[in-house]
C-alpha cells in the first residue's frame, strides 16, 4: 500500500501556504476575494459523477486510489529514473527580493508563495501582478477552480503556472510512483504555445526540483519518449493529439493529475480538438478530486458549456481585450501609398535599429514576399504562415526569441499562437478586416504590462478597416504622413 500524501484540499489550504512561505512573503496581507460568479455543477457525458458542495474537494489518498487497480510497468522491471531535477544553487536569499507596497497594486509577496518559487519569480524580473494574475491567484491558491477570460499578453500563463507550481510544492508526491504519471497537466492547442508555456514553466521551477516536459506533434516521437523514460514528470504540457498518442500506447497515465489547465479553450473549439480533450479528461481523476483552470479569449456559449462540465463552482475572472490594447501599447497609423509601404517598413527597421519586430500581413503570398525582400536587403527575417512546416516553425520561433532573427513576418492565423517577450514593435503592413485581429496583433507587444509600439500602414486598399478598429478599442488613432526620410529608396545590396 502506498503512503497517502497530504493534500491541500483535505486541510486548510491557507495554513499550508503559510507553512511553505518565504520569510519575506508575509510582508503584505493576502488580497481579499474578488467578487465572482459561480457556475452550477452540470456534469457532462464525460463525467457522470455526483457534484460536491461548493469548494469541497474529495481527493482520495494516493495509496487508496491505486490499491484496487495495480498497474504493471509496460517494460520488464521498473524503469530507472534520475529522480527530481536538482534545483539550481546560488547565493540568493528571500531578503534579496524587495518590492515596496504600492496602492492599487498586488505584489507576489502578498500571496505567501514558496521561497523557491519566489526565487524563480525574482529571476524573471516580476514585481507586481498583472490584473489577471492578482484576481486568478486570489482564488486558485485556495484550491478553487477558475475560468479566466483574457487575451494573450495579460500574464495569464504566469498566473496558472504559479498556481500549479504552488499546488505541487505543498503536496508531497507519493513515495512509490510510475514513470509517465504527471501531477499537473496543461493542454494547449498549438505546438508553438506548448513550447512557450513549457519554457516559462522551466524558468519558474528552476529552483524547485520539479520536472517539466512537453509533448507536441510534428516532432520526433522517440526523442520525446526518451525524456519521459529518463525521469519522473511533474508538469506535462502537451497538444491534445500527441498526448493521446502517448496515453493510448500506455506511456502516459493521467490518474494522478492534481491540476489540469486548459489554455485557449476557444481555439481548441475552433480547431476541432474538443473530442480529443474529452478523451483526455476521462483519464484524469473526477473533477471533485482535481483543480481545473480554463482560459479563453472569449466566453461563448460553447466555452461556458464545457466549463460547466469540467469545473466545480469556479471563480470567473474577466479581463477585457480593449484595455490590453489601449493601456500598454502606443499606437500609430501612417497614411501611405501601397507602392511605398515596403520602403517605409525597411527604413523604420533600419534607421531605428529595431531588433525584435513582428510584421503582419493579410495573405500568405504577402508574407512570403515581404520576408524575401527583407532578407535580400540585409535584414534577418523569417516568415510564419500555414505554408511553413511545423518543425521549422519551432526553429524560427527559437531564433526570433534568441535575437538571431530580427523580423518575424506572419499571418493572423499563425501569429495568434506566438507569445515572445521583448517584441518592441508590431507593424501592420496591411490592416486586418476583422477588428479583433488588430487587438490580437498588437498584443504581441506590450505584454504583461510592459510598454510596446504598434505602427499600422493605411493605404488606399485597406484604410476602410480603420474606423471599425477604433470603435472596438474605444479611441481614435492619430493618422499621419510619414516623414520624407522614411520614404527614401532602399539601397541595393551587392
From TrEMBL:
Its EC number is 3.6.4.13. Residues 1-94 are annotated as: Disordered. It is found in: Cytoplasm. Residues 46-79 have a biased composition (Basic and acidic residues). GO terms for molecular function: ATP binding; ATP hydrolysis activity; RNA binding; RNA helicase activity. Gene3D superfamilies: P-loop containing nucleotide triphosphate hydrolases (3.40.50.300). Its main location: cytoplasm. Residues 106-134 form the DEAD-box RNA helicase Q domain. A motif (Q motif) lies at residues 106-134. InterPro entries: DEAD/DEAH_box_helicase_dom, DEAD/DEAH_RhlB, DEAD_box_RNA_helicase, Helicase_ATP-bd, Helicase_C-like, P-loop_NTPase, RNA-helicase_DEAD-box_CS, RNA_helicase_ATP-dep_RhlB. GO terms for biological process: RNA catabolic process. Keywords: ATP-binding, Cytoplasm, Helicase, Hydrolase, Nucleotide-binding, RNA-binding. Residues 347-490 form the Helicase C-terminal domain. Residues 17-28 have a biased composition (Polar residues). Residues 137-317 form the Helicase ATP-binding domain. GO terms for cellular component: cytosol. It catalyses: ATP + H2O = ADP + phosphate + H(+). PANTHER family: ATP-DEPENDENT RNA HELICASE RHLB (PTHR47959:SF10), ATP-DEPENDENT RNA HELICASE RHLE-RELATED (PTHR47959). Belongs to the DEAD box helicase family. RhlB subfamily. Component of the RNA degradosome, which is a multiprotein complex involved in RNA processing and mRNA degradation. DEAD-box RNA helicase involved in RNA degradation. Has RNA-dependent ATPase activity and unwinds double-stranded RNA. This is ATP-dependent RNA helicase RhlB. It comes from Geopseudomonas guangdongensis.
Amino acid at each position: 500500500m502506498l503512503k497517502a500524501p497530504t493534500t491541500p484540499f483535505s486541510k486548510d489550504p491557507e495554513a499550508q501556504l503559510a507553512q511553505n512561505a518565504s520569510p519575506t512573503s508575509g510582508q503584505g496581507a493576502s488580497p481579499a476575494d474578488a467578487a465572482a460568479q459561480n457556475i452550477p455543477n452540470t456534469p457532462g457525458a464525460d463525467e457522470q459523477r455526483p457534484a460536491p458542495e461548493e469548494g469541497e474537494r474529495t481527493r482520495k489518498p494516493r495509496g487508496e486510489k491505486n490499491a484496487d487497480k495495480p498497474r504493471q510497468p509496460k517494460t520488464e522491471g521498473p524503469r530507472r529514473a534520475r529522480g527530481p531535477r536538482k534545483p539550481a544553487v546560488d547565493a540568493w536569499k528571500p531578503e534579496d527580493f524587495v518590492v515596496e507596497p504600492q496602492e492599487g497594486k498586488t505584489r507576489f509577496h502578498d500571496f505567501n508563495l514558496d521561497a523557491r518559487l519566489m526565487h524563480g519569480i525574482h529571476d524573471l524580473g516580476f514585481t507586481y501582478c498583472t490584473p489577471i494574475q492578482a484576481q486568478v491567484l486570489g482564488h486558485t491558491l485556495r484550491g478553487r477552480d477558475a475560468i479566466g477570460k483574457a487575451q494573450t499578453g495579460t500574464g495569464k500563463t504566469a498566473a496558472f503556472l504559479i498556481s500549479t507550481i504552488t499546488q505541487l510544492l505543498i503536496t508531497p508526491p507519493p513515495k512509490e510512483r510510475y514513470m509517465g504519471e504527471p501531477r499537473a497537466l496543461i493542454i494547449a492547442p498549438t505546438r508553438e504555445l506548448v513550447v512557450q508555456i513549457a519554457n516559462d514553466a522551466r524558468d519558474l521551477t528552476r529552483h524547485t526540483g520539479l520536472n517539466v516536459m512537453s509533448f507536441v506533434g510534428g516532432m520526433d516521437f522517440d526523442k520525446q519518449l526518451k525524456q519521459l523514460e529518463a525521469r519522473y514528470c511533474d508538469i506535462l504540457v502537451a497538444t491534445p493529439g500527441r498526448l493521446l498518442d502517448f496515453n493510448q500506447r500506455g506511456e502516459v497515465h493521467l490518474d494522478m493529475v492534481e491540476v489540469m489547465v486548459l489554455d485557449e479553450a476557444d481555439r481548441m473549439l475552433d480547431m476541432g480538438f474538443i473530442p480529443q480533450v474529452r478523451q483526455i479528461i476521462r483519464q484524469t481523476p473526477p473533477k471533485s478530486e482535481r483543480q481545473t483552470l480554463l482560459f479563453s479569449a472569449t466566453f461563448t456559449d460553447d466555452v461556458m458549456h464545457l466549463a460547466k462540465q469540467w469545473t466545480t463552482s469556479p471563480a470567473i475572472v474577466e479581463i477585457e481585450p480593449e484595455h490590453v490594447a489601449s493601456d500598454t501599447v502606443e499606437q500609430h497609423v501612417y497614411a501611405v501609398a501601397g507602392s511605398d509601404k515596403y520602403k517605409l517598413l525597411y527604413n523604420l527597421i533600419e534607421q531605428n535599429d529595431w531588433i525584435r519586430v513582428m510584421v503582419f500581413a493579410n495573405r500568405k503570398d504577402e508574407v512570403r514576399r515581404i520576408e524575401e525582400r527583407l532578407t535580400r536587403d540585409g535584414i534577418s527575417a523569417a516568415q510564419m504562415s500555414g505554408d511553413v512546416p511545423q518543425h521549422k516553425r519551432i526553429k524560427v520561433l527559437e531564433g526570433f526569441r534568441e535575437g538571431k532573427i530580427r523580423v518575424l513576418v506572419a499571418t493572423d492565423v499563425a501569429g495568434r499562437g506566438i507569445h515572445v517577450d521583448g517584441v518592441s514593435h508590431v507593424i501592420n503592413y496591411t490592416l486586418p478586416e476583422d477588428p479583433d485581429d488588430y487587438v490580437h496583433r498588437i498584443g504581441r507587444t506590450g505584454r504583461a504590462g510592459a510598454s510596446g509600439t504598434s505602427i499600422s500602414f493605411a493605404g488606399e486598399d485597406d484604410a476602410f478597416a480603420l474606423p471599425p478598429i477604433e470603435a472596438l478599442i474605444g479611441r481614435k488613432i492619430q493618422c499621419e504622413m510619414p516623414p520624407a526620410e522614411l520614404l527614401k529608396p532602399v539601397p541595393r545590396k551587392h
